[in-house]
Amino acid sequence: MKIAHVFVEHPIYHLDHTFTYACDGFDLQRGVRVEVPFGRTHIIGFVSEVKEISEEEKKSYGFEIKSIDSVIDEEPLINEELFTLADWMADTYVAPKISCIQCMLPAKLKPKSTHGTIKMEAFVQYVKDINNLTIKQKTALEDLKAVKLMPRAAFYQKYKTPGKKLIALGCAKIIEKEASAFVNEIQVQESEFTLSTQQIQALHEIRKSKHHEVFLLHGATGSGKTEVFLQLASDTIKQGKQVVFLVPEISLTPLMVNRVKRRFGNALAIYHSGLNAQEKYEQYQLVKHHKVQIVVGTRSAVFMPFDDLGLIIMDEEHDTSYKQDRMPRYHSRDIAIERGKYHDAKVVLASATPCLESYARALKKVYHLVEMPQRINESFPEVKLVEMRQAIKNGEDATLSNTMLDAIYERLQRKEQVILLLNRRGYTPILRCISCGHVIQCPHCDVAMSYHKQDKQLKCHTCGYQMPVPTHCPSCGSSTWRYLGMGTQKLEELVQVKFPQAKILRMDADTTGKKNAHEDILQAFANHEADILLGTQMIAKGLDFEDVTLVGIVNGDAMLARSDYRSAELTYDLLEQASGRSGRGDKRGEVIIQAYDIHHYAILAAANHQYQYFFQREMKYRHMANYPPYTYLVSMVFQHKQEAAVSQSVSYAMEYLMKKEGFKVLGPAGLHKIKDEERTRILLKGKDQRQLSRMVKDVYDRHIASKQKARLEIDLAPIILE
Ligand code: ADP
Ligand code: ZN
Ligand code: ZN
Question: Boundaries of each Helicase ATP-binding domain copy (predicted)?
Fold first, then answer.
């Protein structure tokens, strides 16, 4: 008889092994989805293996092998490369294999989802030429013949009357196809620039090798890295291979997409979290069916179903958005490198502020280091530091110093543009009772609620819970609140009061909820519909506006107050990246950083654009404190609604860990409520990555085997320790 091993995902049981089903009479391949009976229900699973077994073997199962109900896919969703990758991920990140497969697929194709309807679209297809057509009909038919297929809407928009006639005459017909069926031809344009010596040099280095290699392109902001990417992509496309451009955030996709389109036409797929399930599915199919050679996207685009990948570009490789924050907690960089090896493709990691680990690897020659220290326009913005304590002592505004106000005023006079950045991490407006000091917290999380002025609501940034501002303090009954801290909304108001004529655009989590909001805001700013773009982290990265000559950072050292061992690195990255937005055109740029501790090395290094200086200092600190890249960290987070369940699981894990040696256990940290669940964390720190990973696997297996109630989430290389 023929049997199939099927992965299923079940919400209650933590299943990571396959179940066996009979599949005689079904045409089945590894990698397709099937519907199977499971307990009293029927669920969707994923076939990992199909094989023949003998009567003997069948008996050895000792239970009746049920048959699958039906087969969902004709073709496998996951090919051999991705199966191997899923194995590798499950092993490397200590995660259930099914979760690794899930994260590779768009929602419509995930094993557990039903095979939802796929949207079809109407197209007009060329059929034949006939005599006696009018001139207009002839033109329309010629046009259609050239491309063979055109979306009906587009065709009718161009040739309404002659178009309809052509269909009536049988020269063209309407067909239904998946919306992704139609794409434009790829066209490769030459670069519009004469490349700089530095760009030529970098290209030469990267082109030298014909095989897989990982490059770290360390190039200053505005050094022309993107132009290097496009040139490499052009090489790869001409060889008939696929290219993926990864960007860290959805706000950066429009920019990259525009530059890629200018160079290669419209034949590309775009993949990011802002797309709905149908759109994601369509983009996925474009790649799967070889309709496009180029993909631009965020983190998960690294899993697209490539089968002949030649180049992976990872822009802003230091960015923490590349790390997945759920199991499997993968990093796109690791995945990119694994896939690069498999396809014998080049991987280019690029950044003005490479992550410490990457730069250390490049110095050890694990990655091939390529440096581009000069800006295209050969001038770095001048950075001014403003010490806020002093400014406040002088009676200046506590949020915007006189230096900042003067600089903004100048830009407005000269009709140049300004970017104002408020580093929101650790700096949000909260409500505190004037009489007793009580801070309003989220009832579901141990987190202070943030005040949103527009709708006069308190919102929890962790779980999204909202409530109106209470009339009385729940602790003492007083009715006067103090609004502490500065959010983007409040900053916008303040700037508007100081500069009533200025047009301001705000970009933060509140203004970018709607579809295409990022694109619209950035486009409006590019069109000079506003003088000032104000926002959080998301405006610090990658943007390229030539008329921005001032970048102001309101609270440059807010992040240094965090206890995270990477807070200096995150601060430096943010400041250097943000300053990189100033003076990218012909006009010289300026940057003003307001901070309390202006002598901190992270701030000084950013002010002087000295990556090496920062790197040396930070490595020394990491060495002394025994932090990565000198050691490895593993985090284990236990969570459950009941405190007792968490404590029990933690004790059970600790009991095992205490018997082992060769590493340090930090924690468990005190319980902390998030989304109504109690959670705590244990951190392991050690020099032997293999040993750590083996131990964590043991802890995980014991946890599952002993049927612990708490959920255990493992992160093999945590980069943000909240
Ligand atoms: P990066 O990606 O390193 O920040 P970009 O590739 O965005 O830098 O280049 C910065 C600016 O310089 C862009 O506006 C780009 O169009 C322009 N640029 C890039 N290469 C050249 C070149 N060789 N000659 C002139 N301008 C260039
Ligand atoms: Zn909450
Ligand atoms: Zn009170």
Answer: 206-372
